[in-house]
Structure formats: C-alpha cells, structure tokens
Amino acid sequence: MLMLRKIIKLIIILTFPVNNIFAADIPIIVIAPGKTPQSLSTVGSSVTVIDSDKINESSHFSLANIIDDSSTSTNMFQAGGLGANTGIQLRGLEKRYSTVYIDGVKMLDPSSSDGSFYMENVMKNSIDRVEILKGTQSSLYGSNAIGGTIHIFTKKGREGNHSNFVIENGSNNTKNFTYSVDGADDKFHYYLGLNKLLTNGISAMNDNNEDDQYRNDGIVGNFGYKINDNFKIENSFRYADTFYEYDAVNSSYADINSTDNIEGSYTLKLIHEKDKFKNSLIYNKLYIERATTNHAKAYTNYFGYRDTFNFLGKYNFNLDNKIVYGIDSEFDASRYPVDSGVTNKEHDESIISQYFDFQFRPFEKLYSTFGLRSDDHTTVGRKTSGRTTVAYQLDGNSKIRSSLGAGVRFPALYDYKYGSSTIVDKGGTLEDIQSERGLSFDLGYDTYIDNLDLGLSATLFKTKQKNSILNNARTEWVQMNATGVNTSEGIELNGNWKPVDKKISLNFGYTFTDSYDAATCDPDEKAAYADNECRDIGSKVQTAKVRVPRHAIQSRINYNISPNLKSSLKGKYVGETRDFGNANNDYTDVILTNYFVFDIETSYNLFNTYKTFINIGNILDKGYEQAYQYSSMGRTFNFGIRRVY
User: Fold this and answer.
1) CA 453, CA 15: separation in Å to the nearest integer?
2) 104 burial via Cβ count (<10 Å: 0-12, 13-18, 19+)
3) Residue 592: count of CB within 10 angstroms of its CB
4) Which residues, including other chains, have CB under 8 Å from residue 376's CB and lie 6 or more apart?
C-alpha cells in the first residue's frame, strides 16, 4: 500500500491534465459557462472541453464512455454492455443533480422516475464537441443543475460540400455504419448524419451467459440560413430508435426483458443581432417513448413530453463587460403506468423562469460574473438561485479561479403521481414535497509551463445538498423529503504534457471524492433502525454516495510512430464503491471492488483521405462491476475504416 501511494504521488507530480488553456495555440472558446462565447482563460467556473478530434479518435461507440475517459469528477456507471442504462454523476452527486443538453435542448426525461436522462443511446459520430460545466449552475440552467451541466454540440456544415462514412466491425458481432453529408456557403449551412449500430451484446447480468442484443438507428441534422446581416434561423434535430434486451434483476425470473425506445428532439432559433444587442427566440421539443416487456411478458408504454419557449438576450457594454438575460418557459408532461402496470396516469408541470448573468472585468487581470434566477414552479412555487465566479490571471500562462453557486431541483412527475405510495395516498398534499436545494464552492488553479510544454490544473470542490426526495422503509415507501445533509468534497488534478516536435504526449487525471449520503445513512437516526438500514460505522465507502469511488485515475499515452501511424495506451483505475443490494441478497448494501482497465487504439492514414483503425478494449480482460451484479465488457476488438474528408 505504501509503495502504491508513492507511485501515485510520483505520477501526480510528474504528469498532470487536460486543456492547454494558456498555451500558444488558438485560444479555446467555450459557450456553456455564460451562454455566450468567451475565452476559457477568463472563465471562473471549472470547465472540461472534449473536442472533435478526441471524439473522432476514440474507440468507443457511445459518447458517455468518451466523457468518462476524458474528464475528472464525471463518474459513469453502466448496467451491462452497449445499450444498457448509463448514468453520469458529476462531483459525487446522483445523476439527477446534473443536466444534459443537446444543441440547447434540455434532455430532462419526464417519464423517468427522477427526471434523469440516460446517455446510452447518444452515439459519438455526429457529435462535434462537449463542454462539461462543474459546480452548481442553476442560476443559468435552472432545476437539476446542482452538480453541473453537460453540453453536447452536434456537427454543423463546413465550407464547401463534403461526405463522410465509417464502417466498423468488432467483438460480439458488432457492426457500426455511419454516413454524413455537410456543407456551407455565405448564406446556408447544413449537416445530416445517419448511424446504424447492431451488436449481439453481452449478458446484462453476470449470473448467465446469454447475449442481450442492442440496436441503434439514428439521424442528426443541423440547418441554418442567414437572411441578412442581422437576422438568421437555426434548426437542429436528433432522432434515435433503439432496441435493447436486458435481464431481470431477480435471478429466479426469466431473462426475456426488452425495451424499445424512441428519443426525439428539435430546436428552432430565430436570432437577431445588431450593434450591442443579440436576442434569440428559441423553441425546443423533446419526445421520449419507451415500450418495455418484463419477465412476465407484460407490455408497458411510458411517454415523456417536453416543450420550452425561451428568450435569450445579450448586451455588450464593451469588450469586457456584458449582461446575459432571459426568460424560460418549460412545460413537462408524461403518461406513466402506476406500479401495478394496469392503468396509466397523466400529469404535467410547468416552470416559468427569469434570469440574468452579469459578466464584467473590474480590474485588468480580474474577470467576474454574478447571476440570479427566479423559477416559478406550478406546485412548489417560486424559488431563487444564484452564482458568482472570479478568474484572476496571475500572468499570461496562469490563473486562479473560483465559483460559488446555490441551486434547486424541483420534484419529478414520478414524485407527485406515480410512486407506489404517493404523498396524497397517505393523506398529504402535493405541496408537502419541497424542492431539493444545493450549495457548491470550488477553488482552482490553472497554469501552462512553456519550457516543459506542460499544462496543469488543480481544483478543490465541496457541495452540500439537502431535502433529498426518496422513498424507503423510513418513509413507509412514500415519496417525501428526507432529513440530513448530503455532502461531496474532493480534489481534481489534471495534466497534459505535449512537447513540441516530439512523438509522445501524455494526459493524466486524478479525482478524490469524499461523499456522504445522509438520506440513506443518517447517524442521528441510526438508533431507530436495524443495523442493515444505516451504515455509518466502518469505512468511508460504506456511507458514500452509491457508485461514487473515492479514488479514480485516468491516463493516456499517445505515440506517433510515423506521420501516418498513431497509437495510444489508455488506463483507468476506479476505487471501491458502495452500491445498493437487490432481491438476490435481501437488499443488503454491498461494496464493489476496485479495478484497472487498459485499452489500445491504433490508426493509420491512407492517401490523406482514409483512416484505418484497430482497437483493443480491456486488454487484460478484467472482470469488474460498475453496478452490483451487472456485467461489464471484457476484452473486445473492433476495426474499421473512416473517410476523413
């Protein structure tokens, strides 16, 4: 153990992280931190950018796996192989405390039990970039953004006319085909991408060896037209039709479960820009349908609908000072079967919001923001959120940054209407369920050392969250707010060593997360419950948030063997995690063991037009669990060809 600690410490000292935000390269421009383009070097929030090169070069099919490999404090868990439920937790908080946006559409699923969006059906091929904004962001992005937000931007047309394709084959009889066309001129730009993925898959649960198949048929489009110098129209849409077989959790049931999903989203933007003003009218539509078949061959449909009408404005006082302001009108509805599966219930909620974010430069080296938001929820009423950030540039290559945010999460439709025992069933009212609240703080340091070609980043973070909504034996299985305060704190270390005119480069990231789940393990309430109901004695892992490791390391060594031949070795370590039990172990909490996984990616350019690649995943064929009794991919191979231009 002592030797392992020394090795980890040496790696941290010698190597550190992700984006060269102060390098001599073209400055990185981000949108997510303030809903407006700005240089990453002036941003006070913690932001990770995953660009198109990293996405295109990855051996993964799913975007969620790329996010998991590319950023600290973005813990991913997957309940099986390709197509299985995939959640991402930011900074040690449950997935419901972060929001996912695709081209500005908030992918909040009204038909899921907590409003979360699972990312297993988002393929990488039509994705241009991802911006992960960490820390509470409710002042800009409203409900659920207590842990942060994940912004996904799809590809747009490039100047001229282009077509691209990718053909891949891999283990488990996996076949992936994508084709896209795109183009742009002075007035018009377009992009249309198609994908089809088929795989025999692996067994979702590790108590059997049968295959659970997965299919994903998708289409992504972006179209824009510039009417004149001041006015333009933007359209984007995404449609995914997927089918996945999965296993019943209870090992005594027949494994004939399946889910047939449709995910559709659309956004329309009318943008007017003149002088110091830029104003946008935005309509977003989200439609999600799930048709499930369980072990008893019962067929059930779930529907989620989301419409938003937004106004987003920006006024530039000068180059260094501006204000972003807006009005959001969000309407959620769902059709959801009660737990008996016999009848459907319908319910809807709405949120009307007003917000502003003032971005200013009070001193030459100091950049700051201050924002407030007011959300008026149909049932809960009006709640406010706020955020402030600062970024101080020490010199041309270094900055100190910090952010403080207070956020909110409103109850999901399931909490009100669809639980096995709702608050109304027990004699209460809907108003008895209050919104969840969160408060986060972080302090970071970013630098770039020219003579070493080394980018470094370190961040301390802490989040408190209260009023958790849950149902368990303590609440008599009624959806209600729990007592106690949940916490998550830790450190993120990142580094990127990319020497000029060298064949080798190195990326490294380490996250330490000390999380505490008071909702399921509150010391003040321990005496009133059986020992297996509350585990506040023992290791920190036993009282941690579920599926959140205390230690996680990711690294990547890139080697350019020749101008056309490149190879990479990726490594990931995930420490022990706590997970809930299930019917197979009488619902007793478990500790999942730590694991190492290594991947190799190799590509070769042919004639400056085509790229061939071969990838080996989990080369040591390590068996591990990201969720209790669910399988993970063993050693896999995939190879293919991609037309570059």
Assistant:
1) 11
2) buried
3) 22
4) 351, 352, 353, 382
CA pair distance 133, 403, nearest whole angstrom: 11
Q: Where are the domains of the chain?
A: 16-643
**Which residue ranges in the chain fall short of pLDDT 70?**
1-26, 338-345, 419-421, 472-476, 520-538, 644-645
Question: What is the tens place of the pLDDT at every residue in 16-38?
Answer: 334 444 554 557 899 999 999 99
Question: What's the DSSP call for residue 527?
Answer: G
Report d(CA 170, CA 640) in Å as an integer.
Answer: 9
Distance CA 639, CA 564 (A): 17
- The DSSP element (H or E) to which 138 belongs, if any, is helix 138-141
DSSP characters for 157-185? Answer: PPSEEEEEEEEEEETTTEEEEEEEEEEE-
Cα–Cα distance measured from residue 263 to residue 461, given in angstroms and rounded to the nearest whole number = 34
16-643: CATH number: 2.40.170.20
For residue 96, give the DSSP letter: G
Could you identify the residue written with the tokens 């073209």?
A: 26
Q: What's the confidence (pLDDT) of residue 344?
A: 61
CA pair distance 202, 111, nearest whole angstrom: 27
| Residue the block writes with tokens 């002036």 | 42
What beta strand segments (E) does 25-116 contain? 29-30, 38-39, 46-50, 74-78, 86-90, 98-102, 105-106
Q: Which residues are within 8 A (CB) of 266 and not within 5 positions of it... i.e. 6 or more apart? A: 105, 235, 236, 237, 238, 284, 285
